[in-house]
Amino acid sequence: MGAPTKATILIVDDTADNLSLLSSHLKSIYTVKTVNNGDAALRIAFSDQPPDLILLDVMMPSMDGYEVCRRLKADPRTRDVPVIFLTARTSVEDEKFGLDLGAVDYISKPISPPIVLARVKNHLSLKATADSLRATVEEVRAAHSRLEETQQHLIQTEKMAALGLLVSGVAHEINTPIGVALTAVSHLSGLVESLASQFQNGAIRKSDLARFLENAREGTLLVTTNIVRTANLIQSFKQVVVDRAGSERRVFDLKDYLSDALFGLDPHLREAGHSLTVSCPAGLTIDSHPGPLSEVLSILIRNAVAHAFRPGQSGRLTLSVMPREEDWVELRLSDDGRGIDPEHLPKLFDPFFTTRRGIEFPGLGLYIAFNLVHQVLQGTIEVESLSGGGASFVVRMPRRVSALAEASA
Question: Is the dihedral of CA 225, 231, 237, 243 positive or negative?
């Protein structure tokens, strides 16, 4: 490593003796530059290598020290360079005026070189500390920016994972009626081919035609029923996706919406050996954001499947919905799993907290759910657990979100 670079001191004074006196005392420690007017001082200050500190005489012809200081502090390149005024003006008003302009110190003439040297050392030390602090702040800001970008990426990944799970579940549900319809159509096609062959051979009988009509009637009914079921599934899926993507507020029947929003999770629950029972009063209408509500419930259910049960254990999940006082509603998702360790309870909704670290579990699901409940649904979310006795996530939300709160969010 090379030797540390000397700090550069710019001395500005229209008196040659003062320049010589100060320079002789400072040049053994610092790199010293001297000029005798304000214009020359600004040219050096605004150059590619500005000084680290400026000793500035106040009373100079053409441009006094106050104006030089004002221009230095107005320019981003030099506003942080310490300026020490050197002047014969000793009134409190003069000193206050200089400090108000941005100077860091005020030394009265006649000049005492040891005093000047001590002040220069102190202010260079303060500047070094300030520069280091600014650099640290910039590093922290950059790190915070990178953290926010990473967090947003992980949040988006978590949301896409939830949507992907829904899409997969919907595809599984749609495959069943589509498969039945295809089987029925294939069977009908065989019947048509058989009847056509009999007709061409002149061997068709009345009983053959009657049997064909009966089979055709059953087949077309089967096809129609399953195509209608598929259309309904697709329509429900479209509504859920629109709600999740747009987060639009609307009035909806909570029981009907839960049936649509959660059906895509059934295949995954069954595959994992779990069951979900939903209990919700009929006719319970909500004026809120169905998309975020669906996302919250999806996150809570996925969290339960991933964490509540031991490997190979089959479990039961129950979603109970109850109206509460003052037009609130409570949604309680409970499981009969192993419960949550008490030391984990206070941290469950913290970002990046997870008991299963990995790409599949970045620790953002419950954090996203917490923010959706508080910021969008204007409610609260809590967790209740007894170790070894299952857990319950309780969402309480108003049946009608506040327009005033939405505007201020």
Answer: negative
Cα–Cα distance, 201 to 294 (Å, whole number): 60
Do the beta carbons of residue 57 and residue 32 sit within 8 Å? Answer: no
CB count, 10 Å around CB of 389? 10
**Exposed / middle / buried, residue 304 (Cβ in 10 Å: 0-12, 13-18, 19+):** buried
3-state secondary structure of 355: coil
Residues 6+ apart with CB under 8 A from 288: 249, 252, 377, 397, 398, 399, 400, 401
Q: How far apart are the first and last CA of the chain?
A: 53
What whole-number distance in Å separates Cα of residue 383 and Cα of residue 391?
7
Is 268 within 8 Å of 289 (Cβ atoms)? no
Say if residues 35 and 60 touch (Cβ distance below 8 Å). no
> What is the pLDDT of the chain when averaged over all its residues?
82
Query: Where does residue 178 rank: exposed (0-12), middle (13-18), buried (19+ CB within 10 A)?
Result: middle
Q: How would you list the strands of the sheet with 328-335, edge to edge?
A: 275-279, 316-324, 328-335, 391-398, 380-385
pTM > 0.90: yes or no:
no
Q: What is the pLDDT of residues 314-343, one digit of tens each?
A: 899 999 999 988 799 999 999 998 888 888
Instruction: Please write the tens of the pLDDT for every residue from 188-202.
Output: 888 888 878 877 887
333 neighbors 297 (Cβ within 8 angstroms)? yes
- Residue 348 vs residues 45, 213, 285, 397: alpha-carbon distances, Å: 55, 62, 30, 20
Give dist(CA 296, CA 113) in Å, integer: 71
The position carrying tokens 């209608």 is 228
In order of 197, 206, 214, 215, 371, the CA distances from 202 in angstroms are 9, 12, 21, 21, 74
